[in-house]
Design goal:
This protein has 8 helices and 5 strands, in the order βαβαααβαβααβα. It is of the alpha/beta class. Helix 5 (about 95-105) packs across helix 7 (about 125-135). The protein is globular, with a radius of gyration of 17 Å. It holds the Pfam family Usp. Belongs to the universal stress protein A family. This is Universal stress protein UspA.
Length: about 160
């Protein structure tokens, strides 16, 4: 029986489906919802300006990161149920998901996939593909699929999905 399940969240319909399926099929497991921010999401408007004397100070950059994390945390709380853990990381999505899963002692990773084309994956890479190939624990991949009525009850609130 699964004790701990980490669910990768990116606020897409596919990740909403992954969350619903994890809730349906792992009812007794502790769940951690993990959002991974790209470093560019928390960087200032111009990283070059910091070196040239213009632009934002390191303190302003820290404030910008905190503001970005708080915005994401608020969205995550809309998706979370009372017993769910919520975590935010910054970095490469597949590497951070794998690292968090191992450190937290997860039994399985659950994540949605958008089903991009092979060309798109070749150009930008696929977090899902990387995790399936490299994670040290099982990965359940969920497409944005039609859900049964009982699974729809496990979705995040209306309007919370991008």
């Amino acid at each position: 029986m699964l004790q701990r399940v980490i669910i990768a969240i990116d606020f897409s319909p596919a990740s909403a489906s992954a969350l619903a399926i994890a809730r349906q099929h792992c009812p007794g497991a502790k769940k951690r919802l993990l959002y991974v921010m790209k470093p560019s999401d928390v960087a200032g408007p111009s990283s070059a300006g910091a070196f040239s004397g213009a632009g934002s100070s390191p303190l302003n950059a820290k404030d910008m990161r905190n503001a970005a994390e708080e915005k994401v945390r608020a969205q995550m709380q809309e998706w979370a149920e009372a017993d769910d853990d919520v975590a935010i990381a910054v970095g490469s999505a597949p590497e951070e998901i794998s690292r968090h899963a191992e450190e937290w002692g997860a039994d399985m990773i659950v994540m949605g996939t958008r089903g991009r084309s092979q060309i798109s994956n070749m150009l930008s890479g696929s977090a899902t593909e990387w995790l399936v190939r490299n994670a040290r624990l099982p990965v359940l991949v969920v497409h944005d699929v039609p859900l049964s009525d009982s699974m729809k009850e496990k979705l995040p609130p209306e309007g919370a999905v991008d």
